[in-house]
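Reviewer 2 asked us to include a model.

Predict the structure of this chain.
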Amino acid sequence: MLSTAALLNYSKWIGFFTLFCAFLTVVGFIFKWGIRFRLVGVTAFMGVLTGGVFALGLGLFNRVEIPGAVRYARVYDDGGTQIVIAVASQTTPTELEATLQQAAADLFSPGRSGRPDQRLTIRARTLIHPEAGVSEPVFLGQVRRSNFQRDDQNLEVDIYLERFAHVEEAVENSPA
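Predicted model (structure tokens):
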């Protein structure tokens, strides 16, 4: 992924090329070149491209990296206040806490529906296989955060430690 500084540098050089195209367009109109109207289109397109790259360079993708977080997959999202993510069954409680914080940062969207007093709840689950052909979802924890405030410092992280023992037991006794 490109850094903010690189995008701003690219927008500067694309902007210079846009100014060059604008200069060519003016010269084309002065000397009545046959491609003068095409140059208007090229200049307009370059202006839009310059504006887009500059806007991306303003930091539209700020990604928070939480140390210790493991990979997760979003398995349910109602578009409002409920999300479920899946983690590996080998995830430790410490890794799960970091992963829930990472998911809270990644999955926040100001376009989610719900009332201002509601909180976004992200639950983490894993699958265990107590016997052949049977899968059982086990919820390991959850995080609750503001549904409307991006920089919510009041995350409520709940880790269900008793369920980790159940998962560990199931993994040890699972058929290979």
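Residues 4-30 form the longest helix (27 residues). The mean pLDDT is 90. We have added this to the supplementary material.
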